[in-house]
Structure prediction request, 320 residues.
Amino acid sequence: MYRNKKFFYLIISLIAVLFFGNTAFCFEQEDFLINHMYYKTINLPKEKRPKVILVLGGGGARGFAHVGALKALREANVPIDMVVGTSMGALVGSLYCSGVKIEDLEKIGEDIKWSDISNLGIPSLITMVTSEKLLSTKKMEDYVNKMIGNKYFFQLETPFACVATDIKTGEKIIFKEGPVAPAARASANIPGLFAPVEYRQRFLVDGGLVENIPVSVAKLFDPDIIITIAVSADITKNSYDNIFFTLFQTIYIQGQQSDRENLAMSDIVIAPKVSNISAIELNKAGECIDAGFVAAKKSLKKIKQLIIDKTYEKNVLQKN
Prediction:
């Protein structure tokens, strides 16, 4: 099936050009062959195909682009063997890996408000200023638990890991066991606004402080292919007279170099066009979902070809 695939592509292409004189037809034939080989590949036993890990980066409201990208990947039957997420990527990843349907994730994007996942509001902000008491994301944990049914990591349909930061030590904390909801909450817990999540003698905040696009974490799980969905902002357009923008700006600046290094380690990078949307604009979740779907669709041919090539390497080259 794999040994002479490139030679086969070449012969079919030459025949198409010589006999039909139609380059467009040639490309159509190539697409047909790629799709044919791809579906043969993904139907192989799991141990014979490449292990694909999906990385979902942080970005607040822009993270809803992950939902659209997941929809496109699901429609194309792209195998996802594990998801690793940070911040909003951890929230979306926890729901997806627990088995929440894409349609339900889209519905969440249509309906969700900050009041659903935190006690953010004018009265609580006044309290925060006057009493120096940070806000809470306990509602976020309750929301995730309601959606997934209080699951633990080992109960998830798709293996999952997420990243948080220990605010006392600056350590990167990788969650891959225990209850899922507190881990996802900790990963998306904005420092300076929300109180740290206390978990096993640690005080945890947003994983974006240490690794906003957690490709190096994905590497720990021996992937053959890493597909990264990056929902980075154009930080030059952010306002600086708003507490939310300032806090998010701090996280983004902190992680810029790490983001570049992690993106360079990815095999495929899907970058939805959402950089103009701020991290707090949950009302634009639908726009983000659409952008994620479009960006992932554009990457499908490259993803399919990579899966075919890695399968060839795994089953032919490594045996020779």
